[in-house]
Amino acid sequence: MARFTPKVVTANALIEGDVVYLTADGRWSRHHHEAELLDDEAHAQLRLLHGMSQRNVVVGAYLADAKAGPNGPEPTHFREVFRTRGPSNYAHGKQVELN
For the chain, what are the domain ranges? Predict the structure, then answer.
């Protein structure tokens, strides 16, 4: 039996297209460190279903690998790190905040 890797629920905001993360209190945040870190597979699946049911708010919800960090969950895969930085075509949104 494989060991479950901690996850966060992520999606894209339906109107703006921004990357968002499901928080423990059911909000969608644009900040990865505010996401609910899920370390139980069954609970993760339930939270994913909850996220997927909000079709009027988000699109493309899925579980992404994460780990506990000093300020909240941190992405573990380069794709998810990239998604936290926002669009790569020119500096706007999250990229402005990084500079």
Answer: 7-98
